[in-house]
Structure formats: structure tokens, C-alpha cells
Amino acid sequence: MEHALGKLKKAYTKLFANYHAIFLLAFIALVIPSLAKGFDLHGSESYFYYRITNFVLDNNIPGYDFLSFGGRAFLYNLGSPLFLVLINLIFKVSVINLLVFVPILFGFLSVILFYLILKRFNMKRNVLSFSCYILILSPAFLYSFVHFTSFTIPLFLNFLGFYLILNRKKLFSYIAFFIYLILPLFGFIHVFFGLVLLFFHFYENKEVRKFIPYSTIILPVLYLNNHFIISGIDVVKHELSEYFFILGGEYSLSIFLIALALFGLVFLWEKRYKNSIYYLFIILNLFILFLNIKYIIYITLISSVLGAYGLRYIYKLEWSSHLIRDLTVIILIGGILVSGVIFLSENSRRDPDQSVYNALVYIGENTDPRDVILSHEKYGIYINSVSARKNFVDINRDYAPRADLRFYHLNKIFYSRDMTNLLKIFKEFKIDYIMITPEMKNGLVWSSSNQGLLYLINNNQEYFKLAYNEDGAEVWRVS
Amino acid sequence: MNKKSFRILTVIFLLSLAFNLYLGFSSPYLNNADSYFNIRIIDNIKNTGLPITYDELSYGGRPVITEPLFHYLFALLSFIPYYFKIFPAILISSLVIIVYFISKEIINDETSSLLTSLLSGFVPIYSNVLINQFTPYSLVLPLMAFIILCFMKLENKKYLIWFLASSFLLAFIHTSSFLLLFILLFYILLMNSEDMQITKLKRETLVFTFFLILFINLLVFRKVFLQYGFDTIYGNNPVKHTFDVLKNIYIIGIIPLFLGITGLYQGFFRLKKEPIILISSMILSIFLLLLLNLLDISTGLLFLSFGLVVASSLTIRNFFVYLEKTKFNHLRKFAISLFIFFIIMLLIIPAYFNYNKEFNNLDDFHWFKANSGYSDVILTPLSYGHIVTYFSDRKNVIDGNFFLAPDPDKRYYDVNLIYSGWSYNKALELLHEYDVKYIYIGEDVKKLYNIQDLKYIQDGTCIRKIKESIYEVIC
Asked: Which of A346, A377, A412 is the C-terminal boundary of a domain?
């Protein structure tokens, strides 16, 4: 067993610690979902950026969004749409192609930059390669780069900026400064991570004065925050379970990565207070995560490195049973691998699927541009982007007008059998159409065909007319 | 083990087996409708090679998720007639052998270990939870006991391998593997609080077992976790249990309760023996899980009774040690006979009378199969849900498989409302909501809801009686 594992270790170093293997895995992981569902837009965020980018291309930066929540102030982070507009204007690449291929390209480049950054820190080859593998298989990284999201560009820019700074060339540091200067456009968390990382890097190298120019970036951050965000810093409400992938988080940390990262911390603690700077860095980042769950993407970066050290620490520990040691390591690696595979398999189906897409196209072609379409909030952005119609609610809840009231009414609409009250709400919010999808009928909203709104629309022909019904997707007109 | 002990242990095993088989075969039906769900899964494995992943009949159609090993194992044995009665009985009876070895490990005394194993063969709660039921618990309990035995003897490499293999199997058999996690966590806690050293090997094994069980459960239940997130641990169970202290003392068994608590006290506070700490961890973790409503009462009591039986061994041994020091040492055999007499009176007889046949007559469900349409939905209380799907081959409104079930809370409430409510209109609205075609209201159902008949039946014409215990919804 011992001999075989020794051989295995050598094989790992030879095969998997090789950067070709890392980049190949990154490429495969990033491309698999697109190969499975086709190279097309996928998920609410991609469709959202598709609409906003086209809107900016046609009308410059607007002050008002007429479609989301029936109409609302245009309070979105403009970094990603402006980047897409610029690339579109310069290279004449269609917005759809940009939204499909930019994530794959930037994801791949991010892995290369991550590898190069870690290499600069003289990490051991096995730790370096395992950090990369953990990152590639982490749900947060895959979420950022298998399709276009709000993380796609700023995460890449953060990698690029830090890498340029590590190169210690004057020209590169100017470019890096420019990159950090535009990061506030993508949201508070991205620039915060970038600046904190820079500060700790300069502090560690006893070059704090070099941080002074970068500290001025705080000014545009403050300006943007005051201009757009009333509450100052970006605080997003969330639950504890959202920190854990599968247990409630869509793209959070795998329990096995957390375990490995904890072992990594134990490894750091071996040098006690010599590593104080790292503890401070980790604590500060955890504090921001506590305020904003989206920061999990940066915690994943930190955990990837800690996890790799944790794995090495576990392996190097003196175990009384090598069998248990090897099995434990296999389980931990298996856990990380499985998290990545589960994320990829969950994201390899088209979203929205064909039946919903056809219904959305029908709405776009057969309704008045001023009509309001009611559906589950999951479909709100699709109603805006594919049908180009107003939705009742969508997932961009922050700063939406009367959002709590709308969601309260939505709940009433879905589950109540009170026709009078239903018509009153429809009148108040001027709802003209209802879109019902197979997923809504199969558990997302209802669990039986005679529940709440489903019962009412099927039994009140004078108020509801079935306008479209294909493959389980229905569109009802409210008379 | 000497030959005499071996012979006595064999007799105890056979007695326990005979008892379990006698009760099991006293009824033509299995107890607990969930037994029939397990048989359906095995039938599906036999027909398709795979367990049921989507059940067309349960809740009118819903995805199903199960840990497959138990069903595959029994699918292999299913060529034997009555496999679903014989093998669970053998597994339950095997506890006497495992308990003997655990006791021996704790007290190192033949007589006391044999008496403890006798105790373990006839705990009244088995009649409620295990006997004549085809449930994974009949495999989980002996396996868990075996894992605990292996953990006690972990320094022996053979037992280490057995421990690892059994933990792996347990994780693929039932979610109760999480209970093992809690037991081991409490073990670490208690050992530390008592300033006792856990050997390096045990610490390593604990770390490994923790990740193994977590890994396998996340893998098997990933869809459930993705849907319910952290709430998965509550099992989506709409039934809220009430705790009846006297009844629970009775079904745990007076002897294990009394001797077990005394044994725990002696072991934990006086002897501070590691195996007793392990058993204490088991009992404490069960209490915690019951308190947090993470474990249903009958399952909790089942494991609790096991822990108490094992802890009893210490009291029994101490009693005989004490007897040796008195003038009554010559009465040792009499004391053993008296002890056996008490076991018969306070365990075996209560276990016998505690056994109730849950289903006496299921002819109506055969009638449904012969006289209803294939897509008809039949309303029954929760406890009959799997009977509808197994015997009638028709859709039910609710059954005991709550993971991934659509709105079990609401359905449970609505079904109770239809049976015990007063409003005809409300009942009809709910019957329409679930597309119910037939309502089953047998004598057991009337007893369950404490009703003579549906209270609103005179208020309309849409629900008509077609058999003594069956109503049809006609409009």
C-alpha cells in the first residue's frame, strides 16, 4: 500500500502538478456546460446583461428602467454593461457572442493568472497545483465563468491587476492602477477585495507607501456609493445556510473545502504569531462576507490556497494508520470534486428551457409593449429580456419600488382562491398576462393542479383566457 | 467464549428468533405501511435493476430518493419466500450476539454478559418499531451495534477494517448514519470533559468517519439538499409527536431503564470506563436529537433502549460482585433464575402484549384495484398511504415518504380536515384540489379520527357511499 501510494504521489506530481493538466481541466470545466446546452445565453444574469447592454448601446445610460418591477430607477452596477458596450463598439462582436464567450475566455485566463500569481509566491508545486484544482472545481469559480454573471469581469480584473503589480514594472503598475480605478463600477466587494489584497501585499513586503496611490481609489468608491447606494456599503441580507454549497448556497463553499481550509489554518498556526498578518487578512475578509454573501467568491480564492496547504498538512501529519490517512484524503478530494461535478450537472441544462423560451417569444410577439406580465420572480428577467415586456417582479429586488408589497401580493395571488381580492390586485398593478411554466406547476409554486391561482384561472373563463399552451408552458390573458 | 456460554448464547438467539418469527407470522400483513413501500422498491429493482426514482402513485406523482443498499441487499434475498419477514427477524435477533460481545468488552464477565444479551432480545419497543416490519432499521440497529463494538476494539487491526467497512455500508443504508456522527462527536466531548485520552487511532478514525458519512449522504441526497437546503435535517416530516412518559418507560422496558440508568451512573461517575463513555454518548446524543426534533420518537427510543440494555450489563455485573461479598453467595443461581423470571415478566410478556397487528383487513384495497380507474386518486390517512400504492396500485394523497414530497405539511393538514372537519364545501374543495375519486374510511380510520362517519355527508350529494368503508366523489 505504502509503495503504491508513493508511486501514486510521484504520478500525481508528474501528471497533475503539470500546468498543462491544470489548464486543460479548466478549459474542460468551463466548456462542458456550453457543450451540453449549446453556446447560447444561459441564466437570468446573462439575459439581464444582454438587455442592459443593448439598452445602453441604443439609448446611452438611462435614468429609468421601464421594464423591471413595472418600472424603476436605473440603479445597477454599470461596469459589466459598459465593458460589453466598449468591446462591441471596438471589435464589432455581437453582444450575444460576447456574453457567451467572454466568461469562458476570462475564466481560462483567470486560472492562468491565478497559477502565475501563486508561482510568484514560490509555493511548492503540489500545493500550487492543488490550489488551482480546488479553485477550478469550486462552485463559486464555475458560477462566475461558465456563463456571464456580475462576477465574470471584476474577478478577472482583480486577478489581472494583482498579477501586474507582482511584475514590478512601471508600465504594468500604471495599467494595474487603471484597473483598480474602474473596479468600483462593478460593485463595492470587488474593489474592496482588490485594495485589501494590495494593502496586505505591500505591508508584507514593507512597501506600504506604494499603496498610497491606490488608496485614492476609495474616493470614487465613496462617490459611487453615495450616488447610487443609499445605505453606504453594500450589505445584502442572507442566511447562514447560504454559506454552504448544496445546503442552501447556490455557489458557496463546499463543506469539504471548508474542512481543508480549517486544516490550512491549523498549518498556519504552527508558526503562531509570525503569521498574524494572514490571520488579520482572513478575519477582515470573513467580516465582509458576513455583510455580503456575494463576497463568497473571494473567500473561495482564499480557501483554495488554505485548502491546498490543509491537504498537505493532513498528508504530512504523523498518522497511526496510513490506511485511514489515505482514505480521509481521498474523501476530502472526492468531496471537492463532487461539488464541482454537481454544480456543472445542475448548470448544464438550458435556462430558460425551450418551452418557456417559446412562451416568452409568444408574449413578445402578441402583447402590447405596455402590458405587465405576472410570473414567478425567477422568470422576471426573461420577461424583460426575451419578451421585452414589463414584469411584476424579478430577482433584482434591491432598490425596486414597493418590492416587499409586490412579493406579499405575489404570494396572495399564487395561493389564494379569493377571486375578488385577486382582481383587485390585478387592477392595482395593471397585470395583463400571466405566464405559467411547467416548473411552477411542479413544485416551484404549486404542487397540485387545483391549487390557488391554478384553480381560479381554470374555473373563471370570463376573467381568464388561455392565449398560449405549448409543452406545459401557458400564457393567460386577464380580461 | 467457552462452549457453555456459546450454547447458552445460541439458545438465547433461537428464543429471540422464535419470538420474533412467531409474532411476525401471526399476521398476514406486515405492520407499518412503509414496509410495503420498501417491498415496492425491491420489486422495482427486480424488474428494472434500479430503485424507484419517480413514483407515479405516491402523492399523485413525485420524485423519490432512497439510500439503495438495504433494498439491493434484500433484492438479492428475495427469491426466498417471506424474505421480508424472515431476514428482519434474524437481524433483530442477531442483536443478542452483538450485545453479548459488547457487554463482555465492558465488564468481562460471562454470566452478566449472557443475561444482558437475554435482555437485548426482548425489548418491548421492538414490537412497535421492528417486529413484523420490513424497515431498514432492522439492519441499521445491529449494524450500529456492531460498529460500536468495533470502535471499542479498534486497536485490533481486524476490527479497524470492520469498523471502516461497516461505517461505509451504514452510510449507504440509512440516514441514521448521522446518528453515528452525533454519537462520536459526543464521545469526543465527554472524553475531553472527563480528561480521558482518546488514542491517536481513534481520533483519526473519528475524523475519517465524519467525512465519510457526510460525503456519502451529500452524494445520495444532493437533490434533497439542493431543494430544501439546511432544512433537510428536519426530514420534511409534518407529523408532530407527543411525548408520553409512562408509555415510553413501558416500551423501553422497566428493567433496561432501571438497570441502564444505574449502570450509566456507576460507569460514568465511578469507573470512568471508556466503553461506558461511548454508550453515554449514544444516549446523550439521542436525547439531544429528540430535543431538537431531529429524530422521531420511536427511532430515538429504539436506539435509547439499546444503549440502556448495554449499560445494564454494568449493574448486573456489580450486583453479582456484591453478592459474592455477602453471605448470600450460595444463592447466586437462585438470583440468576430470579433475574430470568423478571425478564420474562417485565420484558417478554410486555413485548408480546405490546405487539399489535396494524392492519387486520385490507380487502377494500384489493377492491380498489379491481374496481377503480388506473389514474384515480384514493384518499386515506397518512398511515395507509403506502397500502394504497402497494395493494391497490392507485395514487394516494399522502404517505410516509416525505423527502421531495410536494407540500406534505399542507396535505397532512388537509387530509385530517377532510376526515374530521364539519364543512361539506371545504371538504369538497380539498377533494377537488387533490383530484380525489374515493375516500377510504374503515373502522381503524374512524377510530383514528374518533368519528362515526364523515360529519358533513348529509349536506350535499357529491359524495356518495358505495361500500361500508368507501365513499366516491361523483361531482
From this structure: A346
d(CA B53, CA B418): 30
What is the ipTM score, two decimals? 0.82
How far is it, in rounded angstroms, from Cα B231 to Cα B237? Answer: 11
Query: Which of A247, A313, A319, A325 is the mutation pick for testing B, counting most B CBs within 10 A?
Result: A247
Lowest mean pLDDT among A65-69, B176-180, B230-234, B423-427: B230-234
- Tell me if the pTM is above 0.90: no
**Which residue segment(s) compose the domain that A153 sits in?**
2-38+77-346
What pLDDT was estimated at residue A81? 93
Please determine, for residue A113, whether its predicted confidence score (pLDDT) is greater than 90. yes
Among A240, A266, A324, most B C-beta atoms within 10 A, so best to mutate, is A324
Instruction: Judge contact between A235 and A292, C-beta under 8 A.
Output: yes
Task: State the sign of the Cα–Cα–Cα–Cα dihedral A190, A195, A198, A204.
Answer: negative
Mean pLDDT of chain A: 88
In a shared domain, residues A145 and A290: yes
With a CB cutoff of 8 Å and minimum separation 6, the contacts of B425 are: B460
- pLDDT of residue A127 exceeding 60: yes
Q: Write out pLDDT tens, residues B275-324.
A: 888 999 999 999 888 888 788 888 889 999 999 999 999 999 999 999 88
Q: Whole-angstrom Cα distance, residue B124 to residue A272?
A: 56
Q: Which residues of A touch B225 (CB under 8 A)?
A: 246-247
* Buried/exposed code over B226-259 (b: 16+ C-beta within 10 A; e: otherwise): bbbbbebbebbbbeeeeeeeeebebbbbebbbeb
Residue A363 shares a structural domain with residue A464: yes
What span, in angstroms and rounded, lies between the C-alpha atoms of B454 and B443? 12
The residue among A322, A346, A370 that closes a domain is A346
Confidence of residue A360 (pLDDT cuts 50, 70, 90): very high
204-223 of B, contacting A, C-beta below 8 A: 204-205, 207-208, 211-212, 214-215, 218-219, 222
Establish, for the pair of chains A and B, how many residue pairs have beta carbons separated by less than 8 Å. 83
In words, the CATH class of domain B363-473 is alpha beta
A45 within a domain of the structure (yes/no): no
A218 in a structural domain = yes
Which whole number is the average pLDDT over A276-294? 89
B289 touches B301 (CB < 8 A): no
By three-state DSSP, how is residue B30 classified? coil
A46 within a domain of the structure (yes/no): no
SS3 B25: helix
User: How high is the pLDDT of residue B60?
Assistant: 85
Q: Are residues A470 and A398 in the same domain?
A: yes
Which phi and psi (to 5°) does residue A402 adopt?
A: 50, 40
C-alpha distance from A90 to closest chain B C-alpha (Å):
42
Q: Residue A294 contacts by C-beta under 8 Å, 6 or more apart in sequence?
A: A150, A151, A187, A189, A236
> What tens digit of pLDDT does each residue of A301-311 get?
999 999 999 99
Mark yes or no for CB contact B222/A447 under 8 Å.
Answer: no
Residues 6+ away with beta carbon under 8 Å from A197: A158, A162
For residue B98, what pLDDT is reported?
96
Same-domain status, A303 and A167: yes
The enclosing H or E element of B439 equals strand B436-440
Q: Classify residue A253 by its DSSP letter.
A: B
pLDDT of A230 reads 47
The per-residue pLDDT for A386 is 94
Task: Give the nearest chain A residue to B407 (CA atoms).
Answer: A447
Number of domains in chain A: 2
Instruction: Please count the CA atoms within 13 angstroms of the CA of A143 that sit on its side-chain side.
Output: 21
- So where are chain B's domains? 3-30+65-354, 363-473
Q: In 3-state terms, chain B is what percent helix, strand and coil (to 5)?
A: 70, 5, 25
Let me know whether A258 and A291 are in one domain: yes
